[in-house]
Amino acid sequence: MNRDVVVIGGGIVGSAAAYELAKSGVQVTLIDEDKPGRATSAGAGIICPGTSFRAPIHHFTLSGQAAGYYPVLLDELASLGITHTGYETVGCLYVATNENEAEKLPILKTLMEERKSSGMPNIGDLAIVDSEEAKRLFPAIGDIHSAIYLSGAARLDGRLLRQSLIEAAQKLGANVIAGSGVLQCKDGNVEGVQVEDLIIATDRVILAGGAWSNQYRDLIGIDIPIEPQKGQILHLDMRETTSSWPVVLGFHSHYMLTFPDHRVVVGATRETGSGYDTEVTVGGVQEVVNEALRIAPGLSRGRVVEVRVGLRPATPDLLPILGEVPSVKGLYLAAGHGANGLTAGAFSGIAVSRQVMDVEVGIDLEPYSIQRFEA
User: Is this prediction's pTM over 0.90?
Assistant: First the structure.
């Protein structure tokens, strides 16, 4: 067996896989084509999986373990002198804007408490708070009805974490190449990866190409059911904010959170069927702004800094595709996290890299296998 492993895709999933392989002494090459729309670079990084209520059961299994692994990963990076990841425990407000939503909060709080008791991380202390307390915690919020406050929710900066993982991998001996990796297969076996004129001989490849992972479906002879879902995310400068304002979620798919340097992030659209379009649109910005100001009218004073566009790699059942591809010996997939990439992506990349090395993975990958789509 060739000792080299190649990882195609340098988002959070691929960079974490490369880091874990390098940490374990494997000769690893990370191939990264920095395409516009990379989800890692656009996502908000909310680490609070206990607030999801419409996801399949295996979503919670993976997200819980992934969120719980972050302290371990951050400690490992810190031991290498790498500490700039944007990770911070800031809490979360799950808001109810009207009486109908408020009536559901006690039920949701009970469910969150049950999840916490069963080991779900990043929940912390729970309390139902009134509008006045919500405004104290997130001063831009308007007159909501009430909210659940979770003290343990965290957030991170996807761009910083990705850079940290790549830096750590390189410190441990990983080779990073910029470019587009073309998989080389013969008779159902991985033989290498070509990057322009360079051919890297290897019999083990992790494909972590995000929304572009499906481009290999014809080459390997199987469908990879991952399609891009466009998300437009607004970044504001609010001089009166602090980075410790809590994340704001609720009975909708939008969110808001703060980062250092007075930045408030609000999003996001969920544009299924978007293809690989990364253009900022008036309709997308309007949707994000309207929803943000509906809950937090105080954000109207903010200055628009940028609009980021990310292409979420979405699967039909909202679960990622992780693990070995049985029909192509030596090929492993780690992609398809949808909107959950910054929560589960790093742990997923680490888990798949462990499967490549044939060591204890830390989670059963069978529910996330590509074989589930073959039926």
Answer: yes
